[in-house]
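User: Good morning. I'm curious how pyridoxal-5'-phosphate would be positioned relative to this chain. Could you predict the structure with it bound?
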Amino acid sequence: MKIASRLNKISTYLLTEINSKKQKLIDEGKDVIDLCFGAPDYATSAHIVAAMHRAIDDPSTHKYPPYMGIKEYRKSAADWMKRRFEVEVDSDTEVIASIGSKEAIHNLYLAFVEPGDYVLIPDPGYPTYRTSTILLGAEYYPMPLLAENGFLPNLLDIPTEVAQKATLLWVNYPHNPTGAVTSLEFFTELVEFGKKYEILICHDHAYSEITYGSYASPSILQVPGAKDIAIEFHSCSKSYNMAGWRVGFVTGNKTAIKSLGKVKSNIDSGVFEAIQRAAVAGFATPKADLQQLMSVYQERGNVIVNGLRYLGWPLKPPKATLYVWAPVPLGYTSTEFAALLLDKCMIFVAPGNVYGEAGEGFFRIALTVPKEQMQKAIERMEVNGIYYNKKN
Ligand SMILES: *Cc1c(COP(=O)(O)O)cnc(C)c1O
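Assistant: Good morning! Here's the predicted structure, ligand included:
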């Protein structure tokens, strides 16, 4: 059997390997603390599950769904964009349902990326931007996100030759893995950059609702004229605890949406209609419910940040996302430190380098376990003498 050479150029998705290692330890009866996996730990809300029950009892949902998504879903997504960001999008031509963002991210490449093209990706960043580039035989250009720049890329550092050959540019704020957030000013710069070089600006807004305190994450489509050159990816996975349901939407530039639709109509058959109806209930989630969930994540963030600060880490509480991004102690690489936490403390964290070269020197903690587990993790670190300023 001959496996396509492109498959040898990528590795198995990071979390797949880490998960099987974790499962092995759990099967051995080890008390593992998993601070690695970025999936919400709460059940999907009852009102969404109830909408699914109603929808699945209606046999009209059992047929092939329309490729772009049912009208009701696209309309509901457009209304949500209006309510949430004051952004007007046409539900017929500027919104497409996705089977979760990950699928749509890859499928966008099929529409826009050819061998030899450049794709500008955040480093560190969500691994799919990079692997999809490789699978398409194109070149990726990592935009380093540095702490001193607030983890925003410096667009002036992108060589003109690269910008001229680029077809897509990815950003993702609130940002996985650093937890960084951004402002409309930065999005304005990006839109100008996209127009100057004719690069489709792709904003992955998977954490739009996962924000703490008074911070509200802006949409890139709030920038006047953004729809000329930008699209935004929304997902129900994190906002509404619907990671397993596989549903989201992409909105913005008409040509991009239409092209994505053309790809999808050829290779998938749309989101199960019952799930779209359930997601409509998700968009209507009362604000108070969301706030309550955010206060749970925020409290966990505070427990881990205060704990790590107690062990010497220089950290601030996160403003958004399900993650805390922390430097490894001096003398360790990311991989070494993650291995140390696993060997000595049975704690799984994600080594920063798996998100890109600029992630080296960091590790990522996910806020997806109860705060008691976070406290226990800190205690285990202290017992084992793992401090920020001391090599063991
Ligand atoms: C979780 C995540 C996604 C994937 O979302 P799905 O809709 O579940 O596919 C996309 N981008 C980023 C940055 C994420 O963290």
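The chain is about 40% helix and 15% strand. The chain has a mean pLDDT of 95.
Let me know if you'd like a different ligand tried.
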